[in-house]
């Protein structure tokens, strides 16, 4: 699935209560590269993704739960709001060199309840 998303430029997900992760990896579907030490290195590259926005995802835990490097060479906007089950974006390393704009409000509803 991830290999077929290379042309993806923008991803906006809102109010999808069943969603737990965006990229689920099936064995044998990911390209494996060799690192400088000759060890196998797995990475997922989204070359054109420039905007990633996640809103009101009650069960969402992370973008990818596998220990792979996620590479977003074009990502400049990341917004995460009201995703209470999420503790981090991915299990592995994250590479987003152009990321300039982020909003991280994982517990939007909790703030409103505290004011009551």
TL;DR of this structure?
The chain has 116 residues and is mostly beta strands.
User: How many DSSP E strands?
Assistant: 8
- Rg calc: 15 Å
Overall tally of structural domains: 1
What order do the helices and strands follow?
Answer: EEEEEEEEH
Flag low-confidence runs. Answer: 109-116
Structural class: mainly beta
Q: In angstroms, what separates the terminal alpha carbons?
A: 44 Å
Strand content: 25-35%
Net shape: globular
Residues in helix, %: under 10%
Mean pLDDT: 80
Strand order of the largest sheet: 1-4-6-8
Give the biggest sheet.
4 strands, parallel
Number of helices: 1
Can you tell me about this structure?
By secondary structure, the protein is mainly beta. It has one domain. Helices cover 6% and strands 29% of the residues. Strands 1-4-6-8 form a four-stranded parallel β-sheet, with no helix packed on it. The chain has a four-stranded mixed β-sheet with strand order 2-3-5-7, with no helix packed on it. A hairpin with a 5-residue loop joins strand 2 and strand 3.
Topology:
Blueprint: E1 10-14, E2 32-34, E3 40-45, E4 51-55, E5 69-71, E6 77-81, E7 94-95, E8 101-105, H1 108-114
Parallel strand pairs: 1-4, 3-5, 4-6, 5-7, 6-8
Antiparallel strand pairs: 2-3
List keywords for this structure.
disordered C terminus; 1 helix; mainly beta; 116 residues; 4-stranded mixed sheet; 29% strand; 4-stranded parallel sheet
């Amino acid at each position: 699935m991830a290999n077929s998303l290379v042309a993806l430029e923008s991803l906006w997900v809102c109010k999808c209560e069943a969603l737990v992760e965006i990229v689920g990896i099936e064995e044998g579907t990911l390209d494996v590269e060799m690192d400088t030490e000759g060890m196998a290195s797995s990475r997922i590259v989204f070359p054109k993704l420039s905007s990633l926005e996640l809103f009101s995802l009650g069960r969402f835990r992370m973008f990818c739960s596998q220990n792979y490097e996620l590479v977003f060479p074009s990502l400049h906007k990341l917004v995460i709001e009201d995703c209470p089950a999420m503790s981090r974006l991915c299990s592995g390393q994250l590479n987003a060199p152009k990321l300039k704009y982020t909003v991280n409000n994982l517990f939007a509803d909790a703030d409103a309840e505290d004011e009551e």
